[in-house]
Records
---
Amino acid sequence: MTRIATLALLASVASTAVLANEAKIGFVTTLTTGAAVIGNDMKNAVDLAIEHLDGKAGDTTIEVIFGDDGFAPETGKQVTDKLVKQDDVDFVAGYIWSHVLLASRKTVLDADKFLISANAGPSQIAGKLCDPNFFSTSWQNDQTPMAMGEVLNRQGVKSLYVMAPNYAAGKDMVAGVERTFEGEIVGKDLTKWGADAQLDFSAELAKAKASGADGIFVFYPGAAGGAFIRQYDQAGLKDTLPLYSVFTVDALSLPKLEEADFQAVLGSRTTQQWDPTLDNAANQKFVTDFKAKYGTYPSYYAAQSYDAIMLIASAIEAVGGDMDDKDGLRAALKAADFDSVRGEFSFGTNNMPVQDFYLREVVTDDDGTWTTKVVETVYDNAVDPYAADCKMK
Amino acid sequence: MDLTLFTIQLLNGLQLGLLLFLVASGLTLVFGILDFVNLAHASLYMLGAFICASFTLWLGNFVWGVLLALPVTALVGLVVERVVARPLYARDHLDQVLATFGLILVIDTAAQLIWGPAGIAVPLPDWLEGQVQIGAVTLPSFRLLIIGAGLMAAAGLFWLVNYTRLGMLIRAGASNRTMVSALGIDIQSLFALVFALGATLAGLAGMLIAPITEASIGMGNSVIITAFVVIIVGGIGSMKGAFIAALMIGLIDTLGRSFLDDIFKLVMSTEAAETSAPAISAMLIYIIMAAVLAFKPSGLFPPKVR
């Protein structure tokens, strides 16, 4: 075995004049503003992934350089420019926000670097703007709400009120639930988003209540999620207007809600492609070590970031650390030959994951900590709806 | 558009307007009387929320949290006045903007170090978590409390400015600062007091909003912009102007968010209405400000002597 490895090493040394023994990954996320709570969770997951890899992919040392997008597309583009041009990274990963990713994608792709989204999944990049050098370890925005729409149909919900922030992902989420939900959408609000996002939803909740809908569907990631759930409960809508959310109740908002003893959130349901209780070896190791190191459950942002680093590491290892072998790296990324924490998945024609979606419920774990567990599988090997618009084969 | 919903939205608008008034009144006091542009007013709003959140979690009671956080916020206001504001009174507005903008960054980062980036959800006692039924109108009881507290603060401020010796000095200071100090009034402690009062009002607004939106880093930055719109529309330095403009902006913003898409649907396609209504309602208050400035360049109620 050692001999084969040595031979392989020699072969790779022989095949490239200069062996690139270091690979650089730029990781763009939000490390300031209230949304930094998401960025920190992702950064923690990246650090844990590097620790699990011992800082190496095969024989290649991995260096991660973090960049802060400040929750704004223009800042995100600037920091991406810096990573690509000044630091000359080989991969740019991360991106919580769809509008930030859309603003930054061209910088990375024009420089013939690889772009790995660890969260944002705007419809444009899955469809017309798809690119051989772009990969996602998360989902296409529409998919999670589509799964929720399917759940609503199964539960016999006939009319729905929809609320989401007014930006690229918010619109995709609304489009997603509208695509699969068979009942009537009786009202819709898109609220102001960004560093000065609207967090007081009194007017919208009053409208939702007056609409007489069977349920309310919302998408409020980050701090806005906690604020929304608070006001939803204060308005006394729990019994008359059941809440169906995506990316709103997560491992980041639950500890805060638990500390404020905010019982209303227990039992609420959301859809997702991953859950801390998923039974596979990679996930168990990830969740256990994450909890041991940081004291909280990892969020789905963390899981996707961990996967992003593991995917990149698998590609670097596959080409033996030769970072100039772009075709080899591309093929290796596309193969997705690593142990993902979500279990088996593959990349579709547009390099979006083809994966399962689950319905999760907020529960109390054995230690009394609030977390989620899987209730049922909604979709098996789901392909996103924009794959057909992608010209790539 | 039924009457019940309209009434609820009016009350929601009133509540938003009163919160805006709490922030704007402090801003207009400091800007109008001290002639000092305090962007860091937003940070005092945030600090109020965080301090109150800490006290609430520590004591397990929101009301005690507010009562203890108010003097602490006033104290923070005094320190900011002494350390940052006082040396800058004589400088021009640009220097003050620069310094107080820097102060925002410092306080935001300090808050992140102390309380972490996650923000704090503030628990309320049970009697405030429910709803109140008035006829056909159901409102969260906490929102009613905000309306009550806002009206009380406005009344208290009105009384203070118009019927007390301190208020007389404040008004005199606003009209002619040199004359007031020539009459033997300690203008420095008067200014410090006004600054602390403004800080307390901003802090109170932060404390009242925290149980709704959580206390979070940078939470004041969006409010401060709207508060500037309020004092510009109302007339800089005018308490009455701030009050009327705050209620006006609160109502316009809330009603715009509530009914604009329905109104647009009357004249354009559903899809066009759904896309344009959120954009227009986000711009609405600035459109109003531009319109007011076009007709009354110094605001609706400019103070008489400046």
---
Amino acid sequence: MGKTSFRRLLLAVSLIALILPLGGCWDRKEIENRGYVLGVAIDHAAPGEGTGKKEFLAAPQGTGRRKYLVTMELPKFRKEADKEISSAKQHLLWAAEGESMFAVARAINTKVYFAMFFEDIQTMVFSEAVAREGIGGLIDFWLRDAEVRRKVKLFVAPGRAEDVLKADLKVDEVNSIFIAKLPNNAERSPYFPSKATVGEISEALRGKRSFVLPFVLVEGKEVKLAKAAVFDRRQRMIGELDEFEVYGAKLIRRELKQGVVVVANPASPGKIAVFELYEADINVTPRLERGKLRFSLEARFVGTLGETQSVGQDALDPAFTTAMEQAVAAEYARMARKVYDRQQALKVEILGLGKLVYNRYPEYWKSIKDRWEEEIFPAVPIDINIQITVRRPVLKR
Amino acid sequence: MGYFDANDIRARLQGLKKLLAGADDVSQDMAALARSLRERYVESEDYPLSAALAENLASLREIFSGSDDIRFREFWAASLQLKAAVVFLDGMTDEKTLNEHIIAKLTRPRSAGPADSQRFGLAETVRCTIVTAASVQTADRMEAVVHRILAGDTGLFVDTLEAAFVVATRKVEARAVEEPETEAEIRGPRDGFTEELGVNITLIRRRVKNPNLVVSKRTAGVRSQTDIAVVYFRGIADFKLVGEVEKRLRKITIDIPAPSGIHGLFEDSPFSIFPTVLNTERPDRFVAALAEGKVGILIDGTPFCCIAPTTFADFFKSGDDYYEKWLPAALIRFTRYITAFFALTMPALYVAITSFHPGLLPMPLTLTVGTSREGVPFPTFIEAFIMEGLLEIMQEAGIRLPKLIGPAVSIVGGLVIGEAAVRAGLVSPPLVIVTSFTAIATFSLSSYRMGLPLRLLRVPLMVLAAGLGMFGVMWGLIAIAIHLSILESFGEPYLAPLTPRSSANLSDLKDTVGLLPATRMSERPAYLEPQDAVRLKEEENTHDDAD
């Protein structure tokens, strides 16, 4: 190494040193000085907008109404030692009103020194009123913003969405984090839709498909997920499905993997018998015969006798098993039929059947694509054939 | 008014004192001058020995003037009927050999008489019939004799002879062969090199009984005449490489090189912070390197030998890799690369992620780190910088401290810095974890020398991270990668097996980041261009082989 290469090294080092002040730590923000938004609730602004003491909430907008109230939930950073002293809630809520989501987010920044940071959003709740008006336009900001992730989970609240975030839950967790984890049990308890993230809704939006979102209900210090809000192709909520309909919908969508069904005990009247599903094989086939479309659903479910409550019953009795299998099959068929009829009545189709038609009859699908939900689907019949096998009916300890 | 003015007396006394002190200085200077005149520097010029014994001894006395450990013993050699003298260094010479095989033999009158000397000549008579030591050589030039005497051999001078005999009587107190302390291995052999070149050569010769193992000795250092041995396998090592090593050793013109740091005098890229010569004190590793086709350099005075050329991957190898089953060994070696990466980047990544990109962390971790940072007065970079400084100080203290008070460092370091700083809220706990992990990761590298550049580069990377975030870290890493790919070691690219020159060299990769079973590594590394590339011959071929 000669003098020139040493000079070259010096030059390189000083160039690196130069770029540091040029960059000037432009994006540096210590981890504790960011406002980690964990949950967002979107409501209609309370009546009496623009008057009196509520002026504090208004977001400055050149154009647009004070239409929405957006509440953001942030974690409260506290030292481990302080946590033991006070049992107060570990979250902070900040809100602002306006029509533009972006303007609202910036308006909140005027109240805090930590800028809102969206990369960790877990939950987004729409009030039912907002949902019925349509969420397509509202979600645009959250799809455009570079920080928001695809996996943000969306919910609908029957009342005010802010109440979900305000609720004083008995768990020692931030509301949004807790609610975002609730769908983990969707397979075991298939009473609410499991797939409802920003990414998936964005796909439905672009594919002009209808979709469902789970309801989140608040009662005292608890929340629960149940039922589904049905959105049509214009992202407007047009109806809801109850728990059995969601169960049935999962069956037709071939998403059902587990779950229990309670039927009347065929052997001892007044008692119940419970079937626990653990192996499901579901096939839905569209058939096009002479221009007429027809679906047939063939399902084979294998499960166990989960519970009978009838002491001393001979569960090995073939008559009992057969009768129980038939009762369970009828119950499954009822749930599937119910949701199918309901979809036809609502003139939306969230069961993934259109995709099946497209796969099997692409040419036919092209001709009916635009009329599918409103005209074609409500008139398509479905044959439901479910076979149940109860295994290990007497396996106990 | 008195006879004596107190102030005046004090002033006079002080003046006298000064004069006395000055006289001391003057006398010291005079002594030094006289000494420098008396003991002029001896350039042991190369001149032929004289036939007169007295003249030779006078020359030697002049050469060794001032040294009291040189011994001159003159005696009457009854067997030759001539005067003779031995010259040797006290303490480096085996006096038993000297007494029994030289002085005793020469002073005893011989029955055979002068017949022998008529038959052989005087020199041959002494060498072949009288002196019974194992190695007796004749030297007729003064410089050679002086050099050998300084190495511990005995110079035997006989009157009327224009030559001297150099009898091998070297016997030096050497440290016993012990387990290498800086390169611990679980299943490796327990012997390590010592400071004595002869012992080290023995350790290698003992392992390889092959005449093609060449040990060629030379000296380095104009004044120190440090012994150096270049060791390689004839028939394996590339001639060009051997030539290059010898050329570089010849170029060492420093007067007294430090044996442990001699590699700095012939290494490539002295300005680079990455070592391009591997030092090891394990003979097994040395022999393994020779078997690959590399050249080893043993230096008298240090247990650390040098291996040339050395590539980046060599610093991540350990003897244990070859003594264990290949898959665990490969995994462990791969882990070393990963730990090296984290030892280098962990604090920088922490700074970049926490102050620039918290979205890269999973949400619960973000909140945990955020919570623990709450109330810490410094930005993450300053915090990390302080901890990094403390870590370096503690490492240095751990090395320099006498072993007896070593535990004090761990107690003070662990308790005060780890525990109290966190409690006081000066440092956040995640950073303590990051710093400790970094330290442990550095320790787990098999080479101390490779750990140093990683330790050094941590700080610039942290600065880049604090200024530019992950962009800066990547910038730094790319700069390091560029630098590594420019480096060379004895003509071989530093990243040699990792970045193969051609597809033919691809097979070198089986002993770099990972490892294959010994039977599958039948070829020597191709980047070294060995003369015999095949290491493990097929079954049929071994019978044909003469050796």
